[in-house]
Amino acid sequence: MASAGRFERELGACLARAVGLCAPAMQTLQSFLGSQWPPYAYTAFRILLVLVGGLVAVVATRGAVQRLRARLEGRAQAAGGVQQIEDGKRIETLARLLEQSAVIGIWVVAVIVVLGQVGVAVGPLLAGAGIAGVAIGFGAQALVRDVISGFFLILENQVRVGDVATVNGKTGTVENITLRTIVLRDASGTVHVFPNGTVATLSNLTSGWSAYVLEMGVSYTEDTDRVVEVMREVGAELKADSRFGAYMVADAEVMGVERFEPATVVIKSRLKTLPGKHMEVGREYNRRVKKAFEAKGIAMK
Length: 301
Known about the structure:
This protein has 301 residues and is α+β, with helices and mostly antiparallel strands.
């Protein structure tokens, strides 16, 4: 919210300076055109100016959002670690939403001004639109529900762009969030679009930290204490690794015997990592555990 307030103040100051610089030139141009051009040509020219002004405002808004994003990302980078990742995803989500909202607002204002230039009475039109909006609202309850749900989803920071999440049973990376939809891409590349109002279950797998859980089955003839010790040694080696250790936020946890199955004893362990790094670290852990078991003569099942 504080970031949005700074952005609004910066954008307002830029627009005020632009208006102050352009006002005298516009008055001179209007005086010249009013005396030299026929009315329809003058109206067309004013409409063109409005559209160009809208385009310039959109470009300026996007530039202001990018500068604000870079400034906030710099502060997040200074924090480092998990906080940097979490803040980065939050900044990306809010920046996209802020830019989309501002661009829509600019073009709505531009359309209203253009309608005024062609002689349309904007006041009664807006009043009629308000009445029509109430009537349409009864038939667009799903859309209203999506927007309200999306507002609270973003406000409460439940999920961000870049998170790995499970939405209504589908797991993937969040590629975009708007007030109306969540866009999710799964591991096979399939894109899933969920209206926010239809999100019944949402599980964020990368909020704060991620975890890889391994359940390793070994033969009943094996000494489980020895198996646990070997897995802890592998976890310690992984934590000391210059590449994978940087992704781990805690030492590997080997919890011990999880359960008994007809042909195996299941040993459970967990690796806590930076958000989104759990699969990469987990695959390397699996590889090293297998090689260590082979070297120690431990039979896996």
